[in-house]
Design brief:
This protein has 62 residues and is mainly alpha-helical. It has helices at residues 2-9, 18-37, 43-58.
């Protein structure tokens, strides 16, 4: 629902299916978790990478 509302108001890319964007977000969360578990990133670094990546992937590029 949050994704669809964001698409309607122009914050999230309306040209991509909402389910696709949700899948991207879930995959990014899993990737961040794997990096922390593997010791490749601190939790703080993974959080920042997740936020930056999610913002870039979800936002509308007007």
């Amino acid at each position: 629902e949050v994704i669809r509302r964001g698409q309607k108001c122009g914050e999230f890319d309306p040209q991509l299916p909402a389910d696709w964007l949700i899948g991207i977000l879930v995959d990014l969360i899993h990737a961040a978790s794997r990096q922390v578990t593997a010791g490749a990133m601190s939790a703080e670094a993974a959080e920042q990478a997740l936020l930056r990546s999610a913002t870039a992937a979800l936002t509308s590029h007007r």
